[in-house]
Write a structure and sequence with these properties.
about 150 residues; alpha+beta; L-fuculose-1-phosphate Aldolase
Length: about 150
């Protein structure tokens, strides 16, 4: 099962990269494994060239178990997994359009994406604007956990 999940993560990463949802080494993916560990993209990895055997396997306590060095962003993934036991995967992308979008004056900080389909309203609801934190900051994890 773990091998299949590793291959799926590599495939998803390549798809996101090819569609321009992430560039360079920006963004990261993670998923909860059946054994309770977290599988995540390693630090400085490009989603377009992931290798299944090199993915980071991390404990829920943030300890590196196997694979390449874990991303500094793993703390916020773990915070979400702890807060939401029903969450089994996280896709964190750096689209080239999002920085420009986040600078718009017309954004409602309580709900930055206006409802555009019933499906979006049912599945996402409201999307608040979060403050900027330096990548890897523990404050990202604390804010997202809230």
């Amino acid at each position: 099962m773990e091998r299949e999940l590793r291959e799926q993560m590599v495939s998803c990463g390549a798809s996101y990269y090819q569609r321009g949802y992430s560039v360079g080494s920006a963004g990261n993916l993670s998923l909860r494994l059946p054994d309770g560990h977290i599988l995540a993209t390693p630090t400085n990895s490009c989603l377009g060239s992931l290798k299944a055997e090199r993915l980071s396997k991390v404990t829920m306590d943030g300890e590196q178990a196997t694979g390449d060095r874990m991303s500094k962003e793993i703390a916020f993934h773990l915070a979400i997994y702890r807060q939401r036991p029903d969450c089994n995967a996280i896709v964190h992308l750096h689209s080239t359009y999002l920085p420009a979008f986040s600078c718009l004056d017309s954004l409602d900080p309580e709900n930055i994406i206006r409802p555009f389909t019933p499906y979006y309203v049912m599945k996402v609801g409201k999307m608040p604007l979060l403050p900027y934190f330096k990548p890897g900051s523990i404050r990202i994890a604390e804010t997202l956990a809230q």
